[in-house]
């Protein structure tokens, strides 16, 4: 018999990137604030993982910390592996062989990520030279190919343009082309469409999905917009106050959310599918990282909180296949 | 009943210089190009559209913050002019604005309570000894606890700041509140709180909202009537239940198709608009949407469509639509 059992997303052999017990602390002027409290995360090859949460929950810091981009005031701890090899504690030089080349990052605001006084062609060629070692005509030809790949019309002429001559959507395409220059194994897209109009957002999301499938690359999509995640990702991770609240396959998360925070987030979204009714808003606000409550950080806002919630930190429990939730209610 | 706000053929053109080879030439930027709408007292009109479609310019024109090139604005039956005279100031008391970014709308060096009393002082309304009491009463009603009254804006969270901005706008008991992206800068869970608050305020104080947002879901939630704008023109208008369920204009259809949905069972083919909105500088003959319209025809390139009342409650500007066909929406069925 040569029939292979179907490969299930939750029993992949080894993840492409794995972060273990990631902790980040910022210190300034003698005091320090912990913003990530032991985040565990796996991304498999070719998988798309969505990360959601409100501002300050640590979704961007997670990746900036892993890639050593937080600067001298951050203390980062944790075990990170890329294709089985550790990459935590590497120096800047060693990390630069990973950043852009194997793990690429695109940010929210393309206009501020691009150099405003250089033509985009020069910036693109720089990335190609750095990651692929191509020079001269070969690098130029590769730049044209990359712009074609992200569907920028008249690629040859557009190489001569400055970022201010292009629209926000076009600049974001240039950023994606630049991220693809190193043919990365993992693309981290941090709020890639937040600054864009909705029809342009749809174009960029389609493009990201297309290049991911074409290149067989893994993708992490960071967004505050649950519906963007629902559209593009196979698995979702919900973060709250520097911890993972829930992680599950996209379908399971949206159909049967287990953590009260996820349930609250989903319930308070306006829905065009039905008559408007009063939104069941989550009361209160996200706690500041220096004033976290004891026990579960969501407990003060949680409608189902029990006595135990303010005493002990809930563990991340497996509540269904590939579905974990950090809530005592999940244990029952 | 006369509407609270009537806008007739409102137009704002800017003369601008554009590069033309080595020199520059004069061109006209059509920010708002002949739009008309009514807003009844105590109701909400949502204006949606992508950036650069003229939503915010419309808001500024309605408040008389800038002079219109053409057209007429009637507020409570009186013509509004953009001259800063006493008549304008008297009208401005009755119309207030809420901005997108509360931190930049507030004065960083003044405690928030003092900022909420400021409109009363500026307009010299009533007894100055009661200002503090009035402000405290309103702020409590909007969910700002006494502990927050004497803080500075940077000491508050985003949702609390937006409550302060709202208190400051409501202290004059306006009949119209122009809200320009009031919840766009807020987190999802806080956004729901502020939307609920806006709806409560409307119920309690009977204030009308001109609600501007790029977020169709939010507009659907709060509006009694919705106008869709594209490149300075109104392309479609109607009550949200009808407009969002059965959009008539091809642009509205594309806009709705572009929104990602949470509970979409199968990944339906997403109708994606190709290209981007043309520059508002490039004046062209015919319909503004012709470059991106999937149903474009010869007439669309020659003649601008008229603004036509399609049903009792809905209007649109499209050559493909007539009051007769709007009943069963042929454009909608023509979708692949």
Question: What is the element layout, followed by pairings?
Answer:
The complex is a heterodimer of chains A (332) and B (336).
Chain A: E1 17-28, E2 31-43, E3 48-52, H1 59-66, E4 74-82, E5 85-86, H2 92-95, E6 103-106, H3 110-113, H4 120-132, H5 136-149, H6 155-158, H7 168-180, E7 186-190, H8 198-215, E8 218-223, H9 226-232, E9 235-240, E10 243-249, H10 250-255, H11 260-267, E11 317-320, E12 323-325, H12 328-331
Parallel strand pairs in A: 3-8, 3-9, 6-7, 7-8
Antiparallel strand pairs in A: 1-2, 1-4, 4-5, 9-10, 10-12, 11-12
Helix pairs in contact in A: 4-5, 4-7, 5-7, 7-8
Chain B: E1 5-20, E2 23-39, E3 44-48, H1 55-62, E4 70-75, E5 78-79, H2 86-93, E6 95-98, H3 102-105, H4 112-123, H5 131-141, H6 158-170, E7 176-180, H7 188-205, E8 208-212, H8 216-222, E9 225-230, E10 233-238, H9 240-245, H10 250-258, H11 298-302, E11 308-309, E12 315-316, H12 330-333
Parallel strand pairs in B: 3-8, 3-9, 6-7, 7-8
Antiparallel strand pairs in B: 1-2, 1-4, 4-5, 9-10, 10-12, 11-12
Helix pairs in contact in B: 4-5, 4-6, 6-7
Strand line-up in the sheet with most strands of chain A: 6-7-8-3-9-10-12-11
Number of strands of chain A: 12
Helix content of chain B: 25-40%
Could you give the distance between the termini of chain A? 42 Å
Strand order of the largest sheet of chain B: 6-7-8-3-9-10-12-11
N/C terminus separation of chain B: 44 Å
Quaternary class: heterodimer
Structural class of chain B: alpha/beta
Instruction: Name the helix and strand elements of chain B from N-terminus to C-terminus, one letter apiece.
Output: EEEHEEHEHHHHEHEHEEHHHEEH
Global mean pLDDT of chain B = 88
What is the molecular shape of chain A? globular
Q: How many strand segments of chain B?
A: 12
- Roughly what fraction of the amino acids of chain A lie in strands? 15-25%
Radius of gyration of chain B: 21 Å
Element pattern of chain A in H and E: EEEHEEHEHHHHHEHEHEEHHEEH
Largest sheet of chain A: 8 strands, mixed
């Amino acid at each position: 018999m040569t029939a292979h059992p179907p490969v299930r997303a939750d029993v992949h052999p080894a993840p492409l990137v794995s972060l273990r017990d990631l902790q980040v602390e910022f210190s300034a002027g003698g005091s320090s604030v912990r913003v990530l409290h032991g985040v565990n995360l796996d991304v498999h090859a070719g998988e798309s993982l969505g990360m959601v949460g409100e501002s300050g929950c640590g979704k961007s810091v997670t990746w900036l910390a892993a890639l050593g981009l937080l600067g001298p005031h951050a203390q980062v701890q944790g075990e990170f592996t890329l294709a089985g090899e550790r990459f935590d504690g590497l120096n800047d030089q060693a990390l630069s062989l990973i950043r852009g080349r194997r793990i690429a990052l695109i940010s929210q605001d393309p206009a501020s990520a691009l150099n405003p006084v250089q033509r985009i062609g020069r910036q693109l060629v720089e990335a190609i030279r750095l990651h692929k070692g191509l020079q001269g005509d070969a690098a130029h030809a590769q730049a044209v190919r990359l712009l074609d790949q992200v569907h920028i019309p008249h690629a040859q002429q557009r190489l001569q343009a400055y970022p201010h001559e292009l629209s926000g959507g076009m600049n974001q395409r240039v950023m994606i082309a630049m991220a693809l220059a190193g043919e990365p194994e993992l693309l981290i897209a941090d709020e890639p469409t937040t600054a864009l109009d909705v029809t342009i957002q749809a174009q960029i999301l389609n493009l990201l999905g297309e290049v991911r499938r074409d290149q067989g690359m893994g993708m992490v999509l960071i967004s505050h917009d649950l519906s963007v995640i629902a559209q593009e990702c196979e698995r979702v991770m919900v973060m709250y106050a520097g911890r993972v609240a829930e992680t599950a396959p996209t379908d399971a998360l949206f159909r049967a959310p287990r953590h009260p925070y996820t349930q609250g987030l989903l319930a308070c979204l306006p829905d065009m599918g039905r008559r408007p009714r009063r939104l069941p808003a989550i009361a209160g606000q996200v706690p500041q990282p220096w004033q976290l409550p004891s026990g579960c950080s969501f407990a003060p806002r949680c409608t189902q909180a029990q006595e135990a919630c303010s005493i002990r930190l809930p563990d991340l429990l497996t509540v269904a296949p590939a579905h974990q939730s950090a809530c005592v209610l999940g244990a029952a | 009943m006369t509407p609270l706000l009537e806008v007739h053929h409102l137009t704002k053109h800017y003369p601008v210089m554009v590069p033309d080879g080595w020199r520059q030439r004069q061109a006209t930027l059509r920010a708002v190009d002949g739009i008309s709408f009514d807003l009844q007292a105590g109701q909400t009109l949502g204006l949606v559209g992508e950036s650069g479609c003229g939503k915010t310019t419309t808001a500024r024109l309605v408040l008389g913050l800038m002079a219109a090139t053409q057209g007429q604005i009637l507020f409570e039956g009186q013509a509004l002019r953009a001259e800063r005279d006493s008549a304008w100031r008297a009208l401005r008391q009755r119309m207030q604005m809420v901005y997108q970014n509360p931190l930049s709308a507030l004065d960083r060096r003044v405690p928030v309570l003092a900022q909420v009393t400021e409109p009363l002082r500026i307009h010299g309304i009533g007894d100055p000894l009661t200002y503090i009491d009035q402000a405290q009463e309103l702020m409590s009603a909007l969910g700002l606890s006494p502990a927050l009254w004497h803080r500075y804006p940077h000491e508050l969270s985003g949702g609390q700041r937006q409550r302060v901005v709202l208190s400051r706008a409501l202290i004059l008991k306006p009949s119209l509140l122009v809200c320009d992206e009031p919840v766009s800068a807020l987190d999802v869970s806080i956004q729901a709180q502020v939307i609920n608050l806006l709806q409560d305020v409307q119920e309690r104080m009977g204030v009308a909202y001109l609600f501007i947002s790029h977020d169709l879901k939010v507009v659907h939630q709060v509006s009694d009537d919705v106008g869709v704008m594209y490149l300075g023109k109104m392309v479609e208008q109607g009550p949200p239940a009808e407009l969002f369920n059965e959009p008539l204009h091809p642009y509205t259809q594309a806009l709705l198709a572009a929104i990602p949905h949470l509970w979409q069972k199968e990944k339906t083919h997403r109708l994606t608009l190709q290209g981007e909105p043309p520059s508002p500088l490039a004046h062209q003959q015919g319909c503004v949407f012709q470059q991106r319209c999937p149903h474009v025809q010869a007439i669309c390139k020659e003649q601008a469509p008229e603004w036509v009342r399609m049903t009792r409650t809905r209007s649109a500007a499209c050559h493909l639509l007539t009051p007769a066909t709007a009943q069963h929406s042929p454009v909608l069925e023509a979708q692949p």
